Amino acid sequence: TVIILFFAINILMDKIKNDKIFFNNSSSSLNFLNLDNDYIKKFWVGLMDGDGSIQVNHWLKKSLQYRLVIKLKYDILNFDMLKLIAKTIGGYVRIVKQDVIWVVNKKEDIEEIIKIFEEYPLLTSKKICQLNFLKTCLTKNSMDYYLNNRNNKYDNQRDILKAPFVTPSYFKEWLSGFVEAEGCFSLRKSNAHSFSIGQNDDIYLIEAIKLYFEASNAVRNSYGNFYALEIYKKEVLKKIITHCLNYPLLGEKKISFEKFSEKLNN
């Protein structure tokens, strides 16, 4: 019995060393925040908009496969955040080499999660297109449709970009999830500290963030279709700090935020 147990432990340790072990619905160090499920769902939508992927693939052209994925750099806070998301929304979390990944790949689970997107819609144009394509594939359940349209999923993106943007009621929680993915808190020796956030294509979102924080500087188009907002004004930075205290960051970004907040409040 001892030999068998020792052998089993060795196998488990080998899996951990090879970053192949899976985790699902484990307890999280974030539980002490007493976050309600609605906050986590709204935050998760923002995180999906920033770092997520909504995928439809095929297996040997015989069956369609559906996946929701968030892939982050491995960090204990990112790991705990994704475990909390798995506990609240579904799916599982695994560590692969230097990454931690949240995955949902069961069709039934994805159909349930779509209901969350219906209550709190995605806001980035590409993710909206990805979700619409997945929903259409689920409805049609046709390999021919998938093969003929998989390269056309972004055809309606231009219409989304042209449509007027209405700030939704869940924008504050969504924004914290989006900041977790795309925000950057920068500390400099010159004391020219700043917060920046950017996105490809979706200038309407960056303008909405600028309006929410009452920032006066212009949204910059640094290159290609990338639009960014960089804020240096201390008065506005303090509004950003207040927002992140009221609507907390849940992953690795929380560390840089806490250092940033401490520096600005000194």
From TrEMBL:
Domain of life the protein comes from: Eukaryota
UniProt-listed Pfam families: LAGLIDADG_1
Domain Homing endonuclease LAGLIDADG: 44-136, 175-262
UniProt entry keywords in alphabetical sequence: Mitochondrion
Residue stretches spanning the membrane: none
GO cellular component entries: mitochondrion
GO molecular function: endonuclease activity
InterPro entries: Homing_endonucl, LAGLIDADG_dom, LAGLIDADG_Endonuclease
Record carries keyword Mitochondrion: yes
PANTHER family, A to Z: INTRON-ENCODED ENDONUCLEASE AI3-RELATED
Protein's name in the database: Homing endonuclease LAGLIDADG domain-containing protein
Organism: Orbilia oligospora
